[in-house]
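FW: tagging you since you asked about this chain on Friday. Here's the raw sequence from the shared folder, copied in full. Didn't touch anything.
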Amino acid sequence: MAIWDFVKDAGKSVFGKAEAATPATAAAPAPAQDDTQRKVAALKAELRALNLDGDDVHLRLRGDTVIVESKGADREVLEKLILALGNIEGIAKVEADLPAGAPEPVFHTVKKGQTLSAIAKEHLGDANKYAAIFEANRPMLSDPDKIYPGQVLRIPS
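HL: got it, structure written out here
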């Protein structure tokens, strides 16, 4: 499984409070297991809201790491799953297997003051190709101007 790092303190809050996902501990009491199940349910609800929840998408939460398992998702959908989950406040890492032979995806972490145009110029060589980045990140992005520092974006190939 490949592991992608995210900015734990950035992203959408879906867990109900700033505690978000917590680092893994050696022995967790039963209430922590209930809390983990609640958090996994919140992650699945977020995927449903984005229309990224397939019947074969299975999530596990280990501390602040989400493990994604899906046999039927194609590369594009899997990359969007990784980003949708990683861009949630409290998630520091996402583990997933890309389809065999798939090249490593290109992700970009937004820095303060960056725009999609600046990111397009950096990665695609043309600021006017910002729309391609916007489309590659739909439905997670609803507006090209609504990006934030720490957000991780998918750069189309």
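FW: The mean pLDDT is 89.
HL: agreed, and The longest strand covers residues 58-62.
FW: great, closing this out.
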